[in-house]
Amino acid sequence: MSQLSGSPRTALAARVQRLVRDGVYDKPAAWRFSYLLILPGLLVILTMLGIPLVYAIVQSLYRVDLLRPGTPFVGLQNYVNVFNSPQFWSSLQLTFIFVAGTMTLAFVLGMATSLLLNREIRGFAVLRALVILPFIVSEVTVGITWRWLFAPDLGVINALLGLVSLGPVRWLSDPNWAMFSVILAETWRLTPFAILILLAGLQSVDKSLYEAARVDGANFWHTFRYITIPNIKPQMLITLIYLSFACVNQFGIIFSLTGGGPGRATEVVALYMYEAAFGNFQFSRGSTMAVLLFAVNVVLSLTYMRVLRSND
Amino acid sequence: MSFLRSPRFWRHTVLNLLTFLAVAWAVGPMIWAVSSSFKALDEIYSFPPTMLPLRPTLANYQVILEGENFLRYFLNSGIVTVVSVVITVVLALLGAYAFARFKFPMRAFLLLLVLVPRIIPSITRVVPLYQLWAELEMLNTYTALILPYAADALPIGIWILIGFFQAIPKELEEAAMIDGCSRFGALWRVIIPLTLPGVVAVALFTFLRSWNEFILAFTFVDTDAMRTVPVAHYQVFEFFGVRHWGAINAFTVLAAMPIVIFFLIFEKHMVRSLTAGSVKG
Predict the structure, then answer these.
(1) DSSP label of B49
(2) How confident is the model at residue B182 (pLDDT cuts 50, 70, 90)?
(3) Domain match, B271 and B221 both
(4) For residue A15, which residues of chain B lie inside 8 Å, CB to CB?
(5) How many CB atoms lie within 10 A of CB B15?
(6) Which has the closest alpha carbon to A138: B272, B257, B159?
(7) Cα(B52)–Cα(B38) distance, rounded to whole angstroms?
(8) Å from A99 to nearest chain B CA?
(9) Are residues B33 and B153 in the same domain?
């Protein structure tokens, strides 16, 4: 509190101190007021997030199939069916390839770009804004933009490849290329996130560490290995975990690029789930996979919390 | 020309070249869409493609703007986004204020109840929410999108604002109260201006997610007049029958424009809100 005695502010502060000492913040009147303030937000969160999750879990224990009559309780049968379906395992494998491929590419590209931007460089703010752009447009915009780049006959990528007598590659309609194409588009969208986090990390590293190392004759790889990496480890972990969330839950980009095709070549679990629910109207089968996807999110979140705590 | 032999010169040149490539990788696809959107159809179908339009034309934009419901898509997205942002900001302010200022029974439990649902991805709630809206005959309504969007942004919004409220000394607010404001009066007149950066971050975060959201809007809306921009953008192929790539690119440019303009204006704030939700995809 203020040390200036006699001023009106001090008198005010003294009254406030009394109020705080009397505990107006934790009396039943304050309780009711708090509940009133929290209630509207909590209601929206519970009805639009919590209850749908519970409903999905419950529904995964019944057979809800719009093409078959009745909704009998079937216990864990839906889970057994899903785990016995080769198609589920193949979509899980595709999800894994998609997640691992995108994470690797986006992380490496993000790190390289961050290192390039973390120099004495003219127009830094503009360059940073430009490299972030792909992250702010919608997933559908990403999908359609890349569909145009990948177009087999008119697309610019095949035209550029043609200049060096390569291709044309059927990026989206060749099952051997489609997953790579989808990974490339997702990498394009997510690299900016890696840049945002990693660049912030790089800028917080004490510059004098590099000066000292250079005086000792360290080259780029030495400083990167022994100064940069240890200092931005938390940012690296946050980046990797965020990328894994974004890829596991990705729907829009794959859906608008390939729709899961050709055949099922890019049908990751998220798309397979959607197809089961809204293509075949097997709501309980869809819910079962939705719950499994949620479980993956829970595991990732717990990892995230553990990582953050150990780095505090 | 002795500088050509200096390793420093080469080092700089190579690094600048690599920086240029990184920026080109990020903006190249968008520039290509913009360039294509100004090309006449015969130029689009010519091979090899021209980098810049030889005869720039607005014909593709005309095709898009003459589409029956084109402006309606923007109106729909605008309404859904603005209302989601307002609801999120107001409810997040109220909730965060209570959590930051008061002690009450079950505070920790309620905080958990508010924050933990943020790990529920849209892909998990799309089926049950579809069934809910179908049951209530509320498919094809703004509400069916606004409420899930607000719920999606609220946990992070509350989390951000709790931090801002806790940074404000209680004394400031109490001074306002003693001056005769009610608690709500104190909240609005004294506290809100101080939390403005937080409010902006929450609003931008909600704006981005709501404007861009696809899977829920695609599932809950099946009439053309109620489509939001991303859904209409996705369906641009069925809209033309043939691949009218000029018009499709014009649509891409128009769909991305509001968000890119926003980004250029609010870049600093946007960067903060982009990383605010870093737990969820």
Answers:
(1) P
(2) low
(3) yes
(4) 178
(5) 14
(6) B257
(7) 9
(8) 12
(9) no
Question: Do A287 and A293 contact (CB within 8 A), yes or no?
Answer: no
Contact with chain A for residue B235, Cβ under 8 A: no
Q: Which of residues 179-198 of B touch A (CB under 8 A)?
A: 183
| Residues on chain B touching A250 (C-beta within 8 angstroms) | 281
Is residue B222 less than 8 Å (CB to CB) from chain A? no
User: How far B221 CA lies from chain A's nearest CA (Å)?
Assistant: 13
Helix (H, G, I), strand (E, B) or coil at B14: helix
Residues B136 and B221 both lie in one domain: yes
The pLDDT assigned to A2 comes to 36
Interface probe with A: pick from B115, B126, B127, B268, most Cβ of A within 10 Å: B127
Closest residue in B to A197 (Cα–Cα)? B275
Domain range spanning residue B51? 2-61
pLDDT (average), residues B122-127 = 94
**B25 touches A: beta carbon within 8 Å:** yes
What pLDDT, on the 0 to 100 scale, is given for residue B5? 72
What's the confidence (pLDDT) of residue A100?
A: 96
CB B277 within 8 A of CB B88: no
Give the gap in angstroms from C-alpha A195 to the nearest C-alpha of chain B: 11
Q: Which 8-state DSSP code applies to residue B2?
A: G
B50 and B20, same domain (yes or no): yes
Q: Using the beta-carbon criterion (under 8 Å), do A44 and B183 form an inter-chain contact? A: no
SS3 percent helix, strand, coil of chain A, rounded to 5, is 75, 0, 25
Tell me: do B91 and B224 sit in the same domain: yes
Q: How does pLDDT run across B198-253, given as a tens digit for each residue?
A: 999 899 999 999 999 999 999 999 999 999 999 999 988 776 656 788 899 999 99
C-beta atoms of A297 and B249 within 8 A: no
Q: B32 and B168: one domain?
A: no
- Residue B172 inside a domain? The answer is yes
Indicate yes or no: CB of A45 within 8 angstroms of CB of B233. Answer: no
H-helix or E-strand spanning residue A204:
helix A175-204
Residue B281 resides in a domain: no
Chain B residues whose CB is inside 8 A of the A278 CB are 130, 219
| A278 close to B219: Cβ distance less than 8 angstroms | yes
Q: Are B83 and B57 found together in one domain?
A: no
If one counts the domains in chain B, the total is 2
The ipTM assigned to this model is 0.89
Number of A–B residue contacts, CB under 8 Å: 306
Structure tokens, A235: 């940012």
Closest by CA position to A276, among listed A50, A15, A60: A60
